[in-house]
Every structure is written in structure tokens, then in C-alpha cells.
Amino acid sequence: MALLDVEDLSVTFARRGQRTVRAVDGVSFSVDAGEVVGLVGESGCGKSVTSLAIMGLLPRQKGVHIGGKASFDGTDLLQLDARSMRDVRGRDVAMIFQDPLSSLNPVVPLGIQVTEVLQRHRGMKGEAAAKEAAALLDRVGIPDPRRRLKEFPHQLSGGMRQRALIAMAVACRPRLLIADEPTTALDVTIQAQILELLKELVRESGTALVMITHDLGVVAGMCDTINVLYAGRVIETARRRPLFAEPHHPYTVGLLGSVPRLDAGRGERLTPIPGSVRDVLPWPDGCAFAPRCHRRVDACVGEPPELVLTHTGHSYRCVNPVTGPVAPARAQEEQA
Amino acid sequence: MFRFIVRRLLQVIPTLFGLSILLFIWLHRLPGGPETAILGERGTPEMRAAIRRNLGLDEPILVQYGRFMKRLIQFDLGTSTSTKREVTTEFLQRFPGTVELTVMAMLIAIGLGIPLGYLAARRRGTIVDHASVAGSLIGICIPVFFLAYVLKAVFAENLGWLPSAGRQDPTIGATRITNFFVLDGLMTREWDAAADALIHLILPGLALASIPLAVIVRITRASVLEVLGEDFVRTAEAKGLTESVVRRRHVLRNAMLPVATSIGLLTGQLLSGAVLTETVFAFSGIGAFLADAISQRDYPVLQGFILIIALVYVLVNLVVDVSYTLIDPRVRVR
Ligand SMILES: Nc1ncnc2c1ncn2[C@@H]1O[C@H](COP(=O)(O)OP(=O)(O)O)[C@@H](O)[C@H]1O
Ligand SMILES: [Mg+2]
Fold first, then answer.
1. How far apart are the first and last CA of chain A?
2. Within 13 Å and on the Cβ side, how many CA atoms surround A58?
3. Chain B partners of A105 at a C-beta cutoff of 8 Å?
4. Is A46 in the pocket of ligand 1 (CB under 6 A)?
């Protein structure tokens, strides 16, 4: 059994006087213990909403409807009441977010923001908690942790702030860590460091990681399995190597084409996918990508495409898939 | 922090100085001086002139101002033209009552306003929210003296739960030290006196609290709503922290900055605005005395009062600034 099994997750937002938004529309994926799984897709495709739904962090109010299942270790998180979910969050499942500055409380010293998790879930107090907090900051590569504990978020650099948030997330050795675009708000050099840190942490602790990103370049270096999302649906799932070597969905191929490569020459242009997700919301019943797809055929409209499973465990939803290796150069880069 | 406070206090001096000039000139330009108040419309020009000379009002305004400042430096506010007593003495006797009333009103307003505002924001769109928004609108609209009459009629005269007038039951025979009756009672361990003074504060305190309560509810609600949408609240929730820790440490602490500012402004307003409420409850604070002073053109009393109010505003603002630096490390001073 997988550690996390998301089945047919759907989230709709209904607002009075506005069109109902189906932000997540039947997403399924699973995460094994210790596995690194990528959720990749353009901005607005429902990645954050998916992760917030799993965490129970979507507003519990009229108009927000969540369907499907998210089984963590056999328990459906979506069925837990608010109080039990508080026990799970931060202890078994932790999360880090995109913008480290706004994700930290500006008026509370860093030390308290770390120790409050230790106190909540591990019952640690006073000096023991402070010691553990310093050890955690040290572990995520923050120098002089004792002094840093007394400081406030605005006194830290962007990279240090994200490291601090990672320290808080791993404080209780969760079995699952969800990272929602953890490097998007950071400088390129810092991005690489943070990714390296995450990789190292999950390798050492055996924590499973769901890595959310719009950037295939990020998942290329670290994910075991990759799920590509489009307009609230998973349109392709594969292990890392086959996905990069032989993507089947035209959208995935397009995403690969728009990965900025460090080895690309100056003159080389990226080949972005024309249009954006927003152009096609709400999507018709068929394939949501059809309006932007260069391989569109008549069968694309009407029924949503069935999930096709290949013998390699690669699955996709497309009636006119790309076959054969498309990006040999990238496949090699992958093996390196 | 200490240096910051001293620096701020020194900055106050020029402010008060400027203010005193403005007020002095403004007061003396009001039509109808004390001689009219004393003599009515009938006095002959000679009698008027005599009174003005007597009070030193015939001299050039600069000379008058100079004399006023010279006395002020020695904490002498002059003699009331109507009661013929030292203004300082009058104030020391009457001001404590008003201060007690203001503190009571602010405690009520803060103690009810912040939880209500928080609840309204948390339960946004529900009946709790609508009720507190509507209620605060009523609180702002309703004239304070009218509310005072209603409270008095219902709770004092009809139900008889609370006293309808005064600051304390004189038959208790409480010992006076500072003229803050509650404080005196505590200091002398005359608990019944303290309790009685406290009970006398409830109705006028409630009436006076209505406007600041409404303002605090609204500001807290708006501020909490804003903070609830912040990423760090989501982080706190993602850590699985208990509701009370999220509320206190992450939401309210950030939401309190605008509330602290408004509390400062409201307190100053209350001190100067207690007049009508005090009249309704025959509460011997500064209110009635001041009303008399206005009709009597009692310049020394008015000047002294306005200066004291200005000083209170400045001090309350200083407290607000200090609380700012305590709440938010980003504005902390070196
Ligand atoms: N609270 C909300 N109310 C209404 N619509 C929302 C809300 N949160 C997200 N959405 C919509 O859901 C869709 C998916 O958003 P999101 O998951 O944030 O995308 P991303 O993949 O960039 O993380 C978007 O169209 C967004 O506008
Ligand atoms: Mg997002």
C-alpha cells in the first residue's frame, strides 16, 4: 500500500454571482514511503489547491467542495475532523510554501516559530526545545543557530528563511513532506542549494516528498515519479526516465520544450506552448488541452480521454499520443 | 528603549509650546469675555473695564501670555475666575474621576471589542458577523448622552441593579488619598469602598464605551480579516498548531497594530468627551466643571484643561508608539 493515495480528488469553488471553478477535477496519484514524487504543471493548473486539499488547509466554508479520497497510511485525510487533522499536520504530513518571507510570522522570533512545533507535537519545552531547535537550524545549514533563534524573519536572507521553514517542517520527522514551489521565489543559485538540501533531507530521513513545481528542470534532478497536471487533471504519469525520454502527451512534450537549459546556446529560443490554461477554463468535456494542441483530432472533443497504461507503467490521457523518443539530448542529460 | 522614550518626551515640549500659543490666542479672541459672564449684558463699559483690568486682561496679549508661561513652568495654572480657587487644586480633585471613568470605558471597549471583532472576522458572513457589524454601526450612531439616559432609566431606576448617580456612596465614609476612588479603596484596603466606586463606574462606563467599542470591533474585524489571509497563518495551520496558539500568536499579534493606534486616539477623545455622560450620572468628574468654565469664560481653567488634554494625548500616543515597537520588531528602535 502506498503511503499517500490520492483518488479522484476534486475541488470546486462556487462563489455567488461567479462561475463555479473546478480547480481540481479528478486527480489521482500515489506516493510510496520515501519516494520523491513530482506534481508538474503550468501556473493555475491546480497544484496548490491539490496540496492544500490534502493538508486540510482549504477554507472549510460554503462554496468550497472537496470530493474524492486522500488516504494517508490507510486513513482518509479528507474525512478527518478539524481537530484530528491538526494532530496529523506538522507531525505526519508537513508542508513548505512558495514565498518564505510571507510564510514566516514577521513579529515572532524565529526560535518560537520553530519550538512551537516541537512543543505541539513532541511535547518539548524550555531548554530542551531550544536545543532541538538549534540542532534543526544547524541541520538545514543555518550558521550560528543559537543567535538566529532570537532573530526575526526580516533579519534573514531569502534562502535562510526557506531553510528555516524547512527546519520547521521536518522538526517532527514527518513521513510525508509537501513542497509547493519551494524555490520559485528565490535566486537561481539559492534555488539549487535549497533543492540540494531537500534531496539530502529526504534521503537521510526516508521522508517521502511531493515536489510541486511548474519547472520540469526542478523535478528532473530529484523525482522518482512525475505527474503532469493540466487544468486540474493528471494527464501523464511516469517514472522520471521514461517521462523525459519518451513523453506521450503533447502537453508534456511542450513542457519539455520549454525547460530552460543551462547548456542551451544564447541564440536558442525556448519553444513555449502557445496559449495558457486560463484560455480554456472552463474546459469542454473532451481533453482540456485540445484547444492549444497541435496534434488535435476529432476524437479529442466530446469524451474526456481514457487513461492509457503502457507496459512500462507509464500512463497518459491522450487519444493521439506522441510516440518514440522526442528529446534524445534530454534523455542523455537525465542519465548523467 | 529608555532613550527612545526620553527623546519622544523631549519632542513633546515644542509641540505643547506651539499648541499653548494657538490656544491662548484663540481663547482670547472668543466674543464675550469673563466680564460679560459675570455682569451679563447690563454692565456699564466702566464696570467691564474694571473687571478686565482686575483679571489682567487689559494688557497686551503677549504680556499676558508671558505671565501665563511663567506660571506654567512652576506648575501654576492660575486661579479660576469663577470659583476663585487654584486651577491645579480643582483639577486634582476632579480629574481623577474622569480618568477612572475613561479607563473603565476603555477596558469595556477593549475587553469586548477585540474578541467580538475577532469572532466576526473568523465567522465572516455568518449571523455573528452581521450582528456585530450592525451593532457597531448602532454604537457609532447612537448619541452617548441618550444611551446614558436609557441605561440609567433601565438598570438604575427600573431594575435598581446599579446606582444611578455619583462616584461613591458617601455613607461609606471612604478615606481619600489620590481622589482616584477605586485606587484609594485598594490602597487603604477599604475593599467595600473600592467595590462601591467600581459599581458606580459601570453604567457611565458602558455609555461612554459605546463609540470606542464600536470602533474597536470594526478595526479588529478588518485587521483580523486581513491577517487571516496572510501566508504565515497558513504556515501556522500547516504546523498543526492549536487554534488558540494560531489565534493569539499568529493572528491577533499581527492584527493588533492598527487596533493599538485607534485605542490611543479613542482614549484621548474619551477624556475630553466625558462631559455629557458625567452630567447624566451626576458624576463629579471634570465634565460639569468644564461646562461651567466655558459659559463663565474661565480662561485659566480652560487653558489648563486643554493643555492637560494635549499632554494626555501626547502621552497616550507615546504609549502607543512603545507598544508598536513591542508588537512589531521591524519598527524596533536601536
Ligand atoms: N480560494 C479560491 N477560490 C476560488 N478559486 C480558487 C481559489 N484558490 C484557487 N483557485 C483557482 O483554482 C485554480 C488552481 O489554482 P492553484 O492550485 O493555485 O494553481 P497552481 O497550479 O498555480 O498552484 C486557479 O484557476 C485558481 O484561480
Ligand atoms: Mg501554486
1. 31
2. 24
3. 232, 235-236, 249-250, 253-254
4. yes
Domains assigned to chain B = 94-293 (1.10.3720.10)
CB under 8 Å to B7, separation ≥6 — which residues?
Answer: none
Count the helix, strand and coil residues of chain A and give each as a percent rounded to the nearest 5. 40, 20, 40
> B107-122 burial, b if ≥16 CB within 10 A, otherwise e?
ebbbebbbebbbbbbb
Measured from the alpha carbon of residue A277, the closest ligand is 1
- Report which ligand 1 atom has the smallest distance to the Cα of A278: 25
Rounded to whole angstroms, how far apart are CA atoms B163 and B94?
Answer: 20
Domains and CATH numbers, chain A: 4-228 (3.40.50.300), 231-335 (no CATH)
**Window from A74-83, A160-169, A214-223, B58-67 with minimum mean pLDDT:** B58-67
C-alpha cell read off for B35: 466680564
pTM of the model: 0.81
With beta carbons less than 8 A apart as the criterion, state whether B87 and B77 touch. yes
Is the alpha carbon torsion for A310, A312, A314, A315 positive or negative?
positive
Tens of pLDDT along A293-326? 888 888 887 777 878 888 777 898 888 888 876 6
ipTM, 2 dp: 0.87
With CB atoms and an 8 Å threshold, state whether A97 touches B242.
no
Nearest ligand 1 atom, CA A50: 17
